[in-house]
Amino acid sequence: MSEINITVTVNGTKINANVKPEMNLLKFLRSQGFYDVKCGCEMGDCGTCTVIFNGSSVKSCITLAAQADGGTVWTNKGLGEVDELTQKLQKAFVEHGSIQCGFCTPGMIIAGKAYIEKGGKPDRNEIKKAISGNLCRCTGYKKIVDAIYDVAEQMSK
Amino acid sequence: MSAMFKLVGKPAPRHDAWAKAKGDQLYSDDFTMPGMLYGKALRSKYPAAIIKSIDTSKAKALPGVHAVLTAKDVPMNVEISKFGQMKDVGGGFEGLYKVLADGKVRFKGEAIALVAAETEELAEEACRLIEVDYEVQPGVFDPEEALKPGAYIVSSDEGENESNLIMESHINKGDVEKAFAEADVIVENEYRVPPVDHAYLETEGGVAWVDDNGVITMRVGTQVLEHYRTIAKVMGLPQNKVRNMSVPMGGGFGGKEDITVETFLCLLANATKRPVKMVWSREESLEVHSKRHPEILRYKTAATKDGKITAQKVEIIMDGGGYKLLTGWVQMYSTVNAPGCYNIPNVKVDSYSALTNNTPSSANRGFGCCQANFASELQMDELAAKLGMSPLEIRLKNCLRNGDEICTGFIPQGHIALEEIAKKAWEGLEATGPKPDYVDGKKIGRGLAIGMMSYGRLTFMHDSSRVGLRIELDGSVTLRAGVPDLGGGQASVLCQIVAEELGIPMEKVHPYIMDTHLTPLCGTTTATRQLYMSGNAALVTVKVLKERIIKKAAEMLDAKPEEVQLINEKACLINNPLKSVPFVQVVGALSNDGVELFHEGQFNAPFTDVPNLHDMKGRIWPDFTYSAHAVEVAVDEETGKFEVRKVVLCYDVGKAINKNSCEGQLEGGCVYNQGYVTENMGWENGITKARSFAEYLIPTAVDAPEIETIMVESGGGLGPYGAKGVGEPADNSIAPAIVNAIYDAVGVRLKEMPVTPEKLLKAIQEKNK
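YS: structure for the whole thing
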């Protein structure tokens, strides 16, 4: 099967690579060393692979790498170096004890960022709905909601 | 001991929190090595079959395939699993571990062959080219059927091939039959509880390689570093030639307690002399790794008309699935916890476990305890309803108190706070306002359940833990501990304890963890034991160094050692803090004197003998943690759907060393076993129907209730500073509280989980007929 040449800007760096047509964006990102994008199910069910693609949060396991050609991808790690909202979320996750095993954390922070950027308010029920596509088995979600609520409150002031 | 803690009791961010928040933390799948191959297992298509022959020639001939292994290539294919215990326990406790199927296949998805190839796709292709000639067998899928004479025999291995019985155990206290004859009221029920998947978000995986010195080294996510010993036996190597450098896990919950990828990786790395990676897919993880034991529990309870329980008779049948694994140990937990957390004069428990052709059952957070707790707490509620008592009243009337003995005659040494926490949970829920009849057209109900679960391993396993410390010349500290960190903060809390004792900031203690060649062995991250065992080991170790430092500081301050304390990176006089010397100067002085600035200490749990399984008596665990959950649910009477609206949970945690971590365990455990009520593996004749998270539905953020967490700190635990363990007890008593609340809402009590909308609707309709 012939490979496709794609160019994707990931965390501000342009990457050119040949990929198989069936390769998903998750596998592509990880093959390029972006290990903060986690693989939890590869079926779009768990949200650990959530990234920002062309401005929207997507599950990278159900996005084809080829679809990303010419596009822009940001991961939690990349955003943490440049984006103030992501930095605030990362800090809030640390301080509220929202992180246990940490495997869902990068995707969860992206989901929180997407919620707040869309104008999401400090409202526990709305936050829960916004992160309901991101599973966490450790925390019971309470402290994750606490952290996103805290940042949403800071941003709405 | 000074009650003035600097760090203990605070919500300290863990040492690894920032790395995890920023995405810097690496997990088992996040390593690649030069020349790395990909491993894959060929898995059985059938739950019960005889393997007549395996032809690997086509797979071996595929270019890019470097190894194809079957059972005959494994130096010792069948071994007895040990789990880091320091004592050979024997009997039914130590389950047979088989690397690759030979003879009979015992469950669907059992590994039959291993492949290492240049790419994942090639490894999958090679698996497809392996030809297995199966003779399909009828199998047996119900543990009661499996125990009947003439049942299909699951195993073809010596010692297991005459009967499917894994173990039976019994408790006899007083005279239950006499109590039943004299009872005012008797409640009799059968309960059934399902298998549960751990559903950690990181599946099983890792990398193994042979290092420059010929040491087989693996970097995997495991709760049990000490499996390197079993792996060495399987490989036919000395134990010091196998090294386990584990990585923090993306969740464990007991599912990474048995060996998962380790032996597969080591065999493939050894065969190819190249690094090999293997990571299980979600589907593979759901199908093949061990689950929580499904159980049938039959209860008969006698009480007086004023609600005092006089007898509890319980029969338990456990489904062990295709391999014993930890069934014998789990059975201890179900059996001894069967009567519930109550003071009952007459108790009889008979438990039996059986091999079947289902996915094997083994450790899952709660470890046999939450099955028994579910049944005993529904039984209590029915008794209360029958006697016209409130759920709180019946529990207060019967719950264990300090000085009471449990069903084996053992009197727990730790504080028993059941009365206090049951009240606090129930009154906390009542304080949220009077119960409405309906909200948004849904019927509201409230329920209560309480529980007890041990922390620390079975005492007959003679458990121990070790921690190493080295004080550096700049006053920082290196902590070395073989403590597998699955996300509960197992390593971080050790740093907190050491920092507290030395009077230095937590950031000055650096943990190096999980490396069997370099870290003292801490034992398993299982059985809610790390804070208790390794926390105490850290404490005994740091106290040795602290004594040396204080002695030297006293010399330098011209004082007596008992007049000196370590605080704010200084040694100072307790009565005159201004008279002080910097910590780092004392360290320097000790170094000049040639005094050792390192120490490795060990903590031993209490040791007992293996109990007589026909009449279990005495101490089985070090101590217990007590729980209470008060729950409000809303039930849609038209559809049978229900939601958990509120939970007030209350635990005596002894001492919350890290407040955030401790609350996080309690809240996480609560939602974990909220899932117990509804999660559905969909087992049918050995086939797992739930093959993704779209089918195996764990609670999402929207399902999770608003939780109020109340921690009582009695100081009455056996851990450091009087702490108790909470990891597993955290998921006790929530599931029965939910089902009891459903009863309160709609008047039907479902005695079989999962509680699906279909089952609940049917029960509501039948009641309303």
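YS: worth flagging: Chain B touches chain A through 57 residues (CB under 8 Å).
IM: good catch. Also Chain B has three domains: 17-25+464-604, 37-137+204-279, 295-458+610-768.
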